[in-house]
Structures are given as structure tokens and as C-alpha cells.
Bifunctional NAD(P)H-hydrate repair enzyme (Streptomyces alfalfae), 479 residues
Amino acid sequence: MRSAFGVAEVRAAERAAMARGPEGALMRRAAAALAAECARLLGRVYGSRVTLLVGSGDNGGDALYAGARLARRGAGVTAVLLAPDRAHPGGLAALRAAGGRVVDGVDERDGRAEDAVAGARLVVDGIVGIGGRGGLRERAAHLVAAARTATVVAVDLPSGVDADTGEVRGEAVRADVTVTFGAYKPGLLVDPGRAYAGAVRLVDIGLDLPPERRALEALQYADVARLLPVPAGESDKYRRGVVGVVAGSARYPGAAVLCVAGALHGGAGAVRYAGPAADAVIARFPEALVSAGPPSKAGRVQAWAVGPGLGDDEDRLLDVLDADVPVLIDADGLRLADERRVRARRAPTLLTPHAGEAAALLGVDRARVESARLAAVRELAARYDATVLLKGSTTLVADAEGPVRVNPTGTAWLATAGSGDVLSGLAGSLLAAGLAARDAGSVAAYLHGLAARHAADGAPVAAQDVAEAVPAAWRDVRG
Ligand SMILES: NC(=O)C1=CN([C@@H]2O[C@H](COP(=O)(O)OP(=O)(O)OC[C@H]3O[C@@H](n4cnc5c(N)ncnc54)[C@H](O)[C@@H]3O)[C@@H](O)[C@H]2O)[C@@H](O)CC1
Ligand SMILES: [K+]
């Protein structure tokens, strides 16, 4: 499991570490690792032009000390000070002693700051770190834009990205690599921030962060392998779990077919379909058990997936919500599901909105959800007292309490019609196989992302291709 910690936790761990160790030890470790990463990116340090963008805090201090190390190895290092009176004094002295140059970044008259950025092979963003508030200020944004061809390395996190949420208010640095200290910060793993961070390198600087204080977590291969339902020797199809699918309508029979396609690959022993697209489903999947009547009369299931292409069929939805088994609600089902009704359920509920659906449920516009995904998923989970999977780039899964999960396998290829229907079937199947809602949602998202990569392999994919590639994703994970 990869964990990310909020700023308050990092600061507390920093205080504890500082009380233990000699003064300046943390910054020395941070700067050494930062300089090593810069050297790796440069290949040949001697004679390379490196420009540091330095703000008023310790983030700038890290950049200055790292710059001093590079200067000692023969790099031509220039520090551009964005707050000339408040730059880290120790860092400045170290850079000067190593032969580095310092220019005033606020003074716009002679263009020296612009030249230093434009002529650099490597630009180090030490403008702000976890102490940053809001987006880049105008002068900083202007200088960052001058770095057209340089490799950009962000110190701790790209300046302008909110460390706790990944929100970007205004401009932010677009880094090729982010060297982050002590712990991943949520903003490095959740979009839009994640997209600004480039490749993230975590450096251990000796902070002690208790795992139970994590704000965010991302499943890794080994976690998914552990969670995948594997049939025991004595299992039969009923013990493996039966997933019920309530999806599709006369107008949208395809949603039923795609949802069943996903469900067939999630590990449940059987898929039961109940709805008006029964003929279309059985024609495509003879292994599905189909009926056209109400879900409650369809036979026993261990979990339901309801909603894709459902249209306005509220009766079927209510019938499913009454069941005392886990229920996944997606698409039209989300529009029809009453908040109180969902809260009153005793068995687990998993809601799987995309940003547009989440926005409609929250009564805000879509852009608001896209820009503040963590806040949106947490709020929905609290309102519905349910597990919520917010689809999109960096899919999130939240319970009403506890750390949020972020999916690391997403790919833009998944932005294709019907791919959400496949995800619903897949997650419903994992629920039926006995996974908790949070695990079912996050394992489904993980497999779905891997499947899309398999299916796409550099070319556009259709939702059906994604469903068919799910077994390959299982094999990847199980090694
Ligand atoms: N927390 C830790 O354990 C460690 C932190 N270190 C570094 O220290 C950083 C945190 O240092 P600080 O607390 O000094 O904070 P920062 O250096 O992140 O920035 C705070 C300063 O920036 C100004 N500021 C805030 N928002 C701004 C904006 N949008 N534009 C321009 N200026 C803005 C503030 O007025 C304040 O002076 C970390 O990100 C990391 O780089 C490392 O040295 C090693 C250890
Ligand atoms: K930074």
C-alpha cells in the first residue's frame, strides 16, 4: 500500500524528528537527495546550467542547498530569488560559497531572471512547498513560463498545487519530476495536482509517520493480489457468489450487455440479469441467468449492481434497494436514488458516479468536482453514509470516514462510452464474491485500468475490449 500524509501530519513528524536530531539534519538529507536526482537527470553535471527558483521558505532552502552541491560539482548554478529579503540565509550562504550566482527575481528591469530560466538545462522549483497557499503569484508564473526547454524538477511538490487536496487555484509549475520528502502528499496522487507532478520520487528523510494517520492510500499489485477472490477447492458457483445485474432498458440495451460483461469477469460464480434487456443479454452471454421480471423474484443473489441504462425505471431500483445484500448504484440509478433511502439501508451501498453525476448529486457544477475531487468524494460518502467511487482521472474511493483510496492504474483510454458500465458489473461481481464495498470498488478500478491498458496497447478501445481484457489484468496481478 502506498500511503500519503496531509501537511499537518508531516509537520508534526518533522517537529519530532527535529527534536531528535542535530539542527539542519532534515534539510541536509532533503537537499542531498534532491541534488542526486538533479545530477541523475543532467547526466553530466560539470558545465550544466541549472537555475533555482527560490521562494521565501524552507522549500527555497532545499533548492539552495541542493544547488550548492551541484555547483561544487561544476554546474553553473543561478538562484533567482522571488523574495530577495527573505530567502533562506544558510542556503544562500552555501550557494555563494560554492560559487553559485544569485539574481533578484522581482526586479524586472534587466531581464536577468528571465535569461537565467530560459538558458537553463534544469530548473529547480523551490518557490513554495507544503507552506504554499493558492496558485503561483504573477511574477513566479511569468518566470516559470520562460522555462520552455528545461527539465523541471519540483522540490517536495509543484508550486501552486495544494499538498492536501491536489487542487490548483490559478497557475502551477508543471514538473517533469517531483522529489518529495518524508511522505507522499495527497496532492501528488490526486488530479489535477498529480498531472502537474510528473514522476514522483519519494525520499526518506527519517520522518516517523504512523500509518493510521494516513489521509490517502493507493493499492499496489501485492494488495490487489491479496484481495482478489480466489475460489476454494470446495467452492461451487453459489458459494463463489451470484451477482445480480439490473441495467439497460428498451432504449439502452447495450448498457445491460456491458454491465454483464464486466460482471462475468469479477470473480462471482454466476451472473443473474433481471430487466427488459434479457434477450439481448442471453444472446450475447449464454452463461448468464436472465429474467424479465422484478429483481426480487429473480432468485438469490449476494450483491446487486443497478443503474446503467436503467432509464426511469424507479420500481426496479427500489426493489433492489430493499434487498438486504450489498448494492452498487451507478448512472441512472444515482439520479433516482433518494439520499434518505440509501442512508437507511443496513447492507453496504457503493455509489459509482463520474464527475458529472457527482456534481448533480451535490448541486454544484462539474468543474467544481473535477477541481476538488477529494472534497467531493468525501462529502458524498458522508451525505449518503455509503462508499463512494468517484470515476475519472485518479478514481477515488471513500467511506464516510477513514483514508480515501486513489486508483493508480487509470488511463485516458477509459474515457470511452460504456466503460463505466463494465466497471459497475466488475465491482458488483467483487461485492458478490464477498469483498467489502471499499475493496470491491478499488480492486475493480485497479483491474479496469490495467485491462484498458492491455486492450488499448496504444490504440483506441471500446468498452467491450476492456471487459474482455479483464482476465489478462487478473493474470498480471496474480503473477
Ligand atoms: N516538513 C519537513 O519535514 C521538511 C520540510 N522541508 C522543506 O520545507 C518546506 C516547507 O517549508 P516552509 O514551511 O518554510 O514553507 P514553504 O517553503 O513551502 O513556503 C512558505 C512561504 O511561502 C510563502 N507563500 C505561501 N504561498 C505562496 C504563494 N502562493 N506564492 C508565493 N509565496 C507563498 C509564505 O508566505 C511563506 O513565507 C517543505 O515543502 C520542504 O520543501 C525540508 O527542508 C525537509 C524537512
Ligand atoms: K516546490
